[in-house]
Design goal:
mainly alpha; 2 domains; 12 helices; 0% strand; elongated; transmembrane
Length: 327
């Protein structure tokens, strides 16, 4: 069958499924399952005869959306919040996984720019971090306390301030994506250059090891969350610039809804980072090195597994379940 005839034959059905996904048409779980099975058959046909076609890409996207709709409509015994973090967010992260890769590549590039700027311009770190902050840190390094800046203020007061500040930074990384993703990249550039020049500053003063023992206790959750928040901003920007088969407005609605859910998933990690920075980082150099390493690598494993590995596991599980349902 020629592709154009295949599209013409099924166009009305697919548009109807779009309306179901957007909530314009209500369907019960049984009807949704029938639509999904029918759509999977169309997708299988398209993958066989038009594997590199936009039709196949469109049907693959539509099938993932309708399957999520089934899961949301279906009565589940587990708590809604548990389902959100356990299934919904991982599926979205898997769907938009290329944006997570883009965000990490931009982060590494921008951080490298910060390092190189610190190497070739010794005054650069003063401009980025502020002269008073740099001078205070230099004095702390001379006293053998590279993370002394984290020891000021009360624990609970510092924690609250840090959490709200980090959530604000994350919100900017995300919401600036509305400017076609350019705003997100600018915010990521600013924060990444600051991080790169900051780390080189400690290296230049021979205190990189001591600083890393403290900074990365909370930095793993904080920086990784920042990159995921940038991913959300890029998704938001792409939904405006590249609507694909949807109208620009509907593409934006879908992009905003999905990216906002991923953004919300970073909040617990941001809160954990604030608690660690407020209560633990100030004791970093008094702790045995093994304890520092356990906290740092445990944090890296948890957040790395959740955003890089677990989404693939959930996707495979869902695909197996849907395949069994079709059979």
């Amino acid at each position: 069958m020629r592709e154009i005839y295949f599209i013409k034959q099924n166009k009305e059905k697919w548009l109807g499924i779009e309306q179901v996904i957007e909530g314009k048409i209500k369907k019960n779980p049984d009807d949704l399952s029938s639509l999904y099975i029918n759509l999977i058959n169309d997708l299988s046909f398209a993958q066989t005869y038009y594997p590199k076609s936009n039709t196949t890409i469109y049907l693959n996207h539509l099938s993932s959306q309708i399957f999520q709709k089934i899961y949301k409509t279906k009565r589940v015994e587990e708590n809604r919040i548990i389902y959100f973090f356990k299934t919904e967010v991982p599926l979205l992260v898997y769907e938009y996984r290329q944006y997570l890769l883009y965000a990490f590549l931009f982060f590494l590039l921008f951080t490298s720019i910060g390092v190189l700027s610190g190497i070739y311009d010794k005054d650069f770190v003063n401009i980025i971090l502020g002269e008073s902050y740099v001078n205070e840190t230099i004095e702390n390094i001379k006293k053998g306390n590279a993370v002394g800046v984290y020891q000021s203020g009360s624990t609970w007061g510092s924690t609250i301030g840090i959490i709200f500040n980090n959530i604000g930074v994350g919100a900017k990384l995300y919401m600036y994506g509305i400017f076609g993703g350019v705003g997100t990249l600018y915010a990521l550039l600013s924060n990444s250059i600051m991080l790169g020049s900051f780390q080189y500053f400690f290296y230049d003063y021979g205190a990189l090891k001591e600083s890393a023992r403290g900074i990365w206790l909370h930095g793993v959750f904080e920086i990784f969350s920042m990159v995921v928040e940038a991913m959300c901003g890029l998704i938001l920007g792409a939904s405006i610039l590249f609507p694909k088969t949807f109208s620009r407005f509907n593409s934006f609605k879908n992009g905003f809804r999905n990216s906002f859910k991923i953004f919300l998933s970073t909040i617990p990690f941001t809160i954990c980072a604030g608690i660690i920075e407020g209560y633990v980082t100030r004791h970093a150099l008094k702790m045995p090195l093994i304890v520092n390493l356990i906290i740092i690598f445990s944090s890296l494993f948890i957040i790395g597994f959740y955003y890089f590995v677990y989404p693939s596991i959930v996707n495979r599980k869902i695909n197996k379940h849907s395949h069994d349902a079709v059979l």
